[in-house]
Amino acid sequence: MGAFSDIPKIKYEGPDTDNPFAFRWYNPEEMVEGKSMKDHLRFSVVYWHTFRANGSDPFGMPTLDRPWDDGSESVENAVNRVRVAFEFMEKLDVPYYAFHDRDVAPEGQSLAESHSNLDTVVDALEEEQQRTGIKLLWGTANMFTNPRFMHGASTSCNADVFAYSAAQVKKAMEVTKRLGGENYVFWGGREGYMNLYNTDMKREIDHLGQFLNMAVDYADKIGFDGTFLIEPKPKEPTKHQYDSDAAACINFLRAYGLMDRFKLNIETNHATLAGHTMMHELDYAGAQDCLGSIDANTGDLLLGWDTDQFPTDLYLTAQSMLIILKYGGLGSGGVNFDAKVRRESIDSEDLFHAHIGGMDAFARGLKIAAAIRAEGGLGDFVKQRYSSWDSGIGAEIEAGNHDFSSLSDYMLEKGESDPNTSGRQEFLENHINRFI
Questions:
Q1: So where's the catalytic machinery, residue-wise (predicted)?
Q2: How confident is the model at residue 272 (pLDDT cuts 50, 70, 90)?
């Protein structure tokens, strides 16, 4: 008997089904813009929220009692958890999963013991991957939970912590390569500061750049050719994190010579914490050829912190997919559900309802976005709005054929710029509503 023996395998049944354990919109083999939904979306289940979250929050104790988990930090329990995780993912029919090293295996009393624990659990992960065909979207190292990282990992004021972080990432990269991971993620949860009075910002950022270049060098050494991803977030748990948003990350990557090896993993809840929309962050990353993957979730704007809720808003998913389609897809990335059930959703079946809803929301968002693109009205409007750049003085400027002096001469002769045209924001919002 499995942990989810009373749950059927989740299948597509169409929009009219009343079966809560079925997809209404996610049809993996349905073709959209010449590619299957499965290949567009590349859904991934996260290990940490789905199989490790216990419902605790800053104000309350755990509420989620998982019958398959004995609550211990033993290697045996960790291996059992692997079997349960793959049973869940197999029934959900997702192609990928993602993990931190400390999600899947307990930390030991020493670095060597932690490595040994991880190797034992990775044996089980490898077996389950081979059995099911489910693949690793990305791996990463948890360098924010243990007290040693209180001042940061690669940005710590303590050189030994930098060295420990390097050893931990080295091992996590080796494990990711062994499991066929297609990406490796860096999320700098404590790579920032709480107070500038005690912080040498330049030195810390230089150390972060040095650390990531070491990671690239080691990837080359072991033959790991997956994509490196940085995940922007402005705050939480630190007051300010150096990877605060897409623009800050891209500026950092350029400054430290990392643009050719790194892309961004954009998360909705992190975008809103940075004062942006998911659409903005995706578009900025895509415009700089840095769009790599997404963490699919949403936050509660009335709470204003990182609530990591499952996405159900069709405007959010349609806007996200409009930008992802605009830039040709996610490449080796995917739609990774960095989301957790609410602490009040205490039954195991709630894990299925949450993921089914999120997958359906993104599938429907994909179809909406494709329909908007096929109809063409939005694209035509934007093209017309910028048409002055397609010929005449606009085309000459973009070609680099002018400077301030020549442009001054042009306007002195012309006398005044041509009249502006309406941005028609309300019309366009109504236009989008037609598809949703």
A1: 100, 103
A2: very high
How confident is the model over 52-60, as a mean pLDDT?
93
Q: Measured between alpha carbons, how far is residue 379 from residues 170, 326, 372, 373, 433 in Å?
A: 45, 10, 9, 7, 16
Going from N- to C-terminal start, the domains of the chain cover 11-375, 386-435
AA letter at 226: G
Is 275 exposed, middle or buried, given 0-12, 13-18 or 19+ CB atoms closer than 10 A? exposed
Task: Please list, in sequence order, all residues whose beta carbon lies within 8 angstroms of the beta carbon of residue 333, skipping any fewer than 6 positions away.
Answer: 42, 137, 182, 183, 227, 229, 263, 265, 291, 292, 293, 294
For residue 283 the two structure tokens come to 């578009």
- Its pTM stands at 0.97
Placement of tokens 């960095």 in the chain: 338
Confidence of residue 257 (pLDDT cuts 50, 70, 90): very high
Buried b (16+ CB within 10 A) or exposed e, 213-244: eebbeebeeeebebbbbbbbbbeeebeebbbb
**Which amino acid is residue 423, in one-letter code?**
G
Q: Cα separation of 253 and 232, whole Å?
A: 12
pLDDT, one tens digit per residue, over 379-430 is 999 999 999 999 999 999 999 999 999 999 999 999 999 999 999 999 999 9
Q: What is the largest CA-CA distance in the chain?
A: 84
Residue 89: pLDDT band (50, 70, 90) is very high
Q: How confident is the model at residue 336 (pLDDT cuts 50, 70, 90)?
A: very high
52's torsion region: left (phi>0), alpha (psi -120 to 50) or beta? alpha
Residues catalogued as catalytic = 100, 103
Numbered residues of the known binding site for Mg(2+): 231, 267, 270, 295, 306, 308, 338
Show binding-site residues.
Answer: 231, 267, 270, 295, 306, 308, 338
Helix axes 314-326, 278-287, angle to 10 degrees: 0
Fold of 11-375: TIM Barrel (3.20.20)
Query: How many other CB atoms are found less than 10 A from the CB of residue 261?
Result: 15
SS3 3: coil
